[in-house]
Amino acid sequence: MALAVVRDLRLETVEEVAAFEQDLLAEFVLARASAGVLDDTIRGDVGPVLALREWFGRPLWEMEPQDLDRYFGRHRRDSASGTEVRQAVAFAVFFEFLELRHKAAIHAATGFVVESPLDEVNRPRGGTSARLRIPPPEAEIGTLFDGWRCDMEEARKYAPAARNYTASRLTSLIGPRISELCLLQIGDVRWDLGRFGKVLLKGKGKGSQGRGKKERLVPLINGSRDLLEWWLTGPRWEFDERVNDPRAPLFPSERRYGDGSSRAVTDDALRTGLAAAVAQHLPHQAGQLTPHVLRHFAASEPLPQRHGRRCHPGDPRT
After folding, report:
1. Are 114 and 206 a contacting pair, CB within 8 Å?
2. Which of 136, 205, 216, 221 could form a disulfide linkage to 140, CB 3.0–4.6 angstroms apart?
3. DSSP letter string, 163-232
4. Does the global pTM surpass 0.90?
5. Helices (H) and strands (E) in the chain, counts
6. Are 143 and 277 in contact (CB under 8 A)?
């Protein structure tokens, strides 16, 4: 049996980065063609992506929402609204391609966790063809988490099921990135800060160009404090006994170190858990309701509801 060629993805030179980008773009074109997309449409996708790359001056996997704010808000401010919408569609398709197929490879090669810079705040409005990641209404999110919580009580492996539920529910309440969930340690939950407590979310990044690790404190609103209290006083103990260790992972894996302590959960485990729950309890959203869309749901909740403690469908105390 022939062995596959394994490529060393550690990029060390400008030339290697450029070659990697070119490979990704070529695969993107081929993937669109294999989906039956017309050549003119493919060119309409690639052109804006190349223009954005030229303006940005760095690989697009480094782009954040604030960068796209400047692109649409300053550089393309005089463009017709229809043109901006078409560009946004192209960017959404390209970043979805990067996230679905190459997120792990890009992180291994560069240290960056690629996520679409388009969000509900900076996405150009207008038109009906844009592939927007519109979150489901609150009733459907409630249906998902109600059913999920009932299922996990009967799950073959209760602890991982409860972990996946808690991580996804936290995303729907206060909007952490999935990469931030994987990095959370127990000591990052600051119960004594502010009215509800806060959690310290830490992002990954490289130190070059002043874009190192980023941190932000997020209030434990919308019942997220109760959710984490339930998690830490109950299911978290099923993994190991390091619940009082501030350096222990908040969301552990079943994999362990040599001393028996749990490793941190991976984003693949959390994505798989959410996908299975969506397929079971919200099947019309299968393949559509991702951790990123749950972040959009958290951001789209009406502001008056976001500043108090309230009981959500599916929360442990209901």
Report:
1. no
2. 136
3. HHHHHHHHHHHH---HHHHHH-BGGGEETTSTTT-EEEEE----SGGG----EEEEE-TTTHHHHHHHHH
4. no
5. 11, 5
6. no
- Tokens describing residue 306: 């976001």
**3-class state of residue 4 by DSSP:** coil
User: What does the pLDDT look like over 150-201, one tens digit per residue?
Assistant: 998 888 999 999 999 999 999 999 999 999 999 999 999 999 998 899 999 9
| Cβ-defined contacts of 101-110 (< 8 Å, 24+) | 101/27, 101/31, 102/24, 105/9, 106/61, 107/204, 108/9, 108/10, 109/9, 109/10, 109/11, 109/20, 110/11, 110/17, 110/59, 110/61, 110/62, 110/206
**264-304 residue pLDDT tens:** 999 999 999 999 999 999 999 988 899 988 988 887 755 44
